[in-house]
Amino acid sequence: MIPRQLITDFLAQRKLALVGVSRNSRKFGNAVFKELRGKGYQVYPVHPHASFIDGQQCWPSVLDLPEQVGGVIIVLPPAGTEKVVREVVKAGIPRVWMQQGSESTAAIRECSDNNVQVVSGECILMFAEPAAFFHRAHRWVRGVFGRLPG
Q: Which residues on neighbouring strands pair with residue 117, listed in sequence order?
């Protein structure tokens, strides 16, 4: 289980990169992008083939970001996550959030081997406050069953 302090530390970062934002506004990565921006985070969208998404400039890789970020959120299939984690290590970014379904054992191990804090298997929208009703309800249910990070 992920220690709650890792989640708190990640969310304390106000400058984040998001890898997995899409040109399709109905994709989950876009929901994360919009929600976090609405909560006051500075979010750099990373997309290898888009110049702009939702009116904001995109960056082809975390290695191309214009300034240092406190963490990277990854909303990709596991094979893509592994590639991004290698870039995160190279860029010296200290934190990664692997959205549910994005994690892989190899990516988590790469983070651990390189002193990158990693949150995996959790939904960032359940913890980024203020959480929407659906996410608060999901968090409550997980808490009832003892499945929240400790």
A: 95
Residue 73 — φ and ψ, nearest 5°? -100, 130
| Cα separation, 45 vs 22, whole angstroms | 9
Query: 74-126, pLDDT tens digit by residue?
Result: 999 999 999 999 999 999 999 999 999 999 999 999 999 999 999 999 999 99
* Spatial separation of the C-alpha atoms in residues 138 and 123, rounded to whole Å: 10
Q: Which of 28, 41, 4, 15 is nearest to 129 (CA)?
A: 41
Residues 29-43, buried b or exposed e (16+ Cβ, 10 A)?
Answer: bbebbebbeeeebeb
Residue 47 lies in a domain: yes
Domain carrying residue 78: 4-144
Question: Distance (Å, rounded) from C-alpha 34 to C-alpha 29?
Answer: 9
Residue 149 in domain? no
Distance between CA atoms of residues 126 and 31, nearest Å: 12
Report the number of distinct structural domains present in the chain: 1
Give the global pTM: 0.94
Extended beta strands in the chain, E state: 15-19, 42-46, 52-53, 56-57, 71-74, 95-99, 117-122
Question: With contact defined as beta carbons under 8 Å apart, do 48 and 73 qualify?
Answer: no
